[in-house]
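Hey, can you fold this one?
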Amino acid sequence: MENPNQNDGLNRLAGAAEKFIKQERWSRRWTNLLKLAVVAYIIVTLVMLTRQIPSEQEMLGTDKHVAIVKLEGAIMPGTYTSAEKLNPLLDKAFKNPNSEAVIIQANSPGGSPVQSALINDEITRLKNLYQKPVYVVVEDACASGCYYIAVAADKIYANKGSLVGSIGVRMDSFGFTGLMDKIGVENRSMHAGEHKTFLNPFGPVDKEGREFFQKRILDRTHEQFIEAVRKGRGDRLKENRNTFTGLVWLGDEAVENGLIDGLGDMGYVEREVIKQTNTRYYETEKGFMEQLLGDISTETATKLSLYLTSLR
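Sure. Predicted structure:
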């Protein structure tokens, strides 16, 4: 004789199993739908980006235009403002037979003197090779290494409120020995070479090493910077006792002392100076994620560097 309680338990177990199976089916369906949605989103995004990315022929174009290359942010190796990234763009801009002139849209507080010198040299080489005029148009700032680059151009324009100049060289260092003595911290670093640690912030001041670095590195780099400015600006430069001290000027005073040629923005230079308003930007190709999300880190770093420059 069958036990009613046993049959009831079996029925409940079968019902629970059936319910579990249905839930698993729904879960798999939703998972598959989600996967399909993600795949579809990626495909649509790729198609849109592919349509937006110009081909090499489109990049060269068949119409006459002004080639624009952006110089934005701190000038450092391994960034979009390094010689490795900017010089190929400049080469394309000058090489294109349809580019009538090249504009460098500058917005930078400066940076590496070596990278700046490499870009300056390349502008000079391309300008002489292709016999095309090159202009720098300054936005918020073109100081230090940025100005080192700018002086290679035929003419420099800026806004009356732009920061221009800072013809100097700096090397930052700190000293913590007094604080270390107060809190009982002992420097136990090791080195070989008498002046290897002349910039060590945790050791005593190496006067001889610092003097050597000042004269043989900073002063000579400054001299190279001054030479580039004098060569680029020529008779337009009105030197005074502050010209090469590292000071900066607003755009209107920069015109007066010959650091720049006039006041004007991109539109002014295109319309009134070059007399060509058809423009084409030459930019470094970015990876998929950078195109999808935008170069957030570079944009943030640029804004921070320009903000810090404005506080100096």
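The first strand starts at residue 65 and ends at 72. Let me know if you want another pass with a different chain boundary.
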